[in-house]
From TrEMBL:
InterPro entries reported in the protein's UniProt record: Cyt_b561/ferric_Rdtase_TM, DOH_DOMON, DOMON_domain, UCP037471
Domain of life according to the entry: Eukaryota
Source organism (scientific name): Miscanthus lutarioriparius
Presence of keyword Translocase: no
Cell compartments where the protein resides: Membrane
SMART domains: B561, DoH
UniProt KW keywords: Electron transport, Iron, Membrane, Metal-binding, Signal, Transmembrane, Transmembrane helix, Transport
Residue ranges constituting the DOMON domain according to the UniProt record: 63-173
Cofactor: heme b
Protein name: Cytochrome b561 and DOMON domain-containing protein
Length: 380
């Protein structure tokens, strides 16, 4: 009777997890009319350069900014910024330190079917300090255009540079308000954001002073640290307590349960953050997500298996033990591999990769030492 109740609980949990993952995936997929899922930019024929095989990222989700870019030649970088057309200007600036003041920006807008692209030097935070036709960017001549199509504004341009500056500053003007036709003075932006941008991985982080600033721990890093701690640290430690400390009965059992449930809770928090991340244009992210969902399902079976745990005297107890041990070890191995895959996708700093690698190495050595001890004990 208890086993039947446990089986029903496991089935109910799996159905809930499936609905949870589908709902979050649907939320992520319900994006704007332009997204990185589109293989070809909608105005490719109107852009004055070849826009095939561009990298793509949802650069500023709050304003639905989509950025495509590519190193198209020696000392040449091409960009296409897509944003909703609300009768305002859109801008992308390049900065060495993430500050608006002192940076240069490419600004574009469309009026009466005609697009305008200008470079501005951002000498201050007021409209008077933003000087048109000035700046430190080397724009390629006859390679800049603004196109309004299907409710979106496409700003395309090319820069002559060995490598663009590492911070991007995005801004959008007030709805229905364009720069003055004579002075080209920009109206005060209604919103702006500064991003630390990795051109290799396509990952961007909020910087200090921008909207939704998260300091040194952006959502991407929180997701990684929570997943690493829950699935990749606590659960392997919990496995060691169950396998090698059974002589401390019943302390080993309660310690094992406490560690595994804590790891499960922390891991779920990491997965929830993972579904909210900007994943557009990242390689292997689908594999990383699929492995994460598989790890969640397997870990859920492990946590719920306690409800279907037969008595020690039961004939099926040895099959339950085999199932519990096999699924647990497979979950941990998958989690470790997925953590390293996630660190690779995010192009994380080497300190995180090395630190976790050291932990895994120590864990493996500890298991080898405990197994040798068990073998010698059996021989005696």
């Amino acid at each position: 009777m208890a086993a039947s109740s446990g089986t029903r609980s496991v089935r109910l949990l799996l159905l809930c997890l499936l609905g949870f993952c589908v709902a979050l995936s649907h939320q992520e997929s319900s994006s704007s009319t332009d997204s990185c899922a589109t293989a070809k930019v909608a105005v490719a024929s109107l852009v004055p350069f070849d826009s095939t095989s561009f990298r793509c990222t949802a650069a500023w989700k709050q304003q639905d900014f989509v950025l495509r870019y590519k190193n198209t030649g020696p000392s040449e970088w091409s960009f296409i910024l897509s944003a909703p057309d609300k009768g305002s200007y859109v801008a992308v600036g390049f900065s060495g330190k993430g500050a608006m003041v002192g940076s240069s920006a490419v600004v574009g807008w469309a009026s009466n079917g005609r697009g305008t692209v200008k470079q501005y030097y951002l000498g201050g935070k007021s409209p008077e300090d933003c000087t048109p036709n000035r700046g430190l960017l080397k724009l390629e001549r006859n390679r800049s255009v603004v196109v309004s199509r299907s409710g979106r504004l496409y700003l395309a341009f090319q820069l002559s540079t060995d490598y663009p500056q590492p911070y991007l500053i995005f801004a959008v003007g007030p709805d229905g308000s364009l720069p003055q036709s004579d002075s080209l003075r920009l109206p005060m932006h209604q919103s702006m954001a500064s991003r630390s941008f990795n051109y290799t991985s396509g990952m961007s982080y909020n910087t200090a002073g921008s909207s939704g600033d998260q300091g040194a721990f952006p959502t991407e890093r929180k997701h990684g640290l929570l997943g690493m701690m829950g699935w990749g640290v606590l659960m392997p430690i919990g496995m060691i307590t169950a396998r090698y400390f059974r002589q401390l009965d019943p302390c080993w059992f309660y310690t094992h349960m406490a560690i595994q449930v804590s790891g499960y809770a922390v891991g779920i928090a990491g997965i929830v953050l993972g579904f909210r991340l900007n994943e557009d244009g990242l390689k292997n992210v689908d594999v990383h997500k699929a492995l994460g969902i598989a790890i969640l399902a397997m870990a859920s079976l492990q946590v719920m298996a306690i409800l279907a745990r037969p008595d020690k005297t039961s004939k099926v107890r040895r099959f339950w033990n085999w199932y519990h041990h096999s699924i647990g070890r497979a979950t941990i191995l998958l989690a470790i591999g997925n953590i390293f895959l996630g660190l690779s996708i995010a192009q994380e700093i080497s300190a995180y990769i090395v630190s976790y690698g050291v932990f895994v190495a120590v864990w493996v050595v500890a298991i080898a030492a405990f197994e040798m001890k068990r073998c010698y004990a059996d021989d005696d």
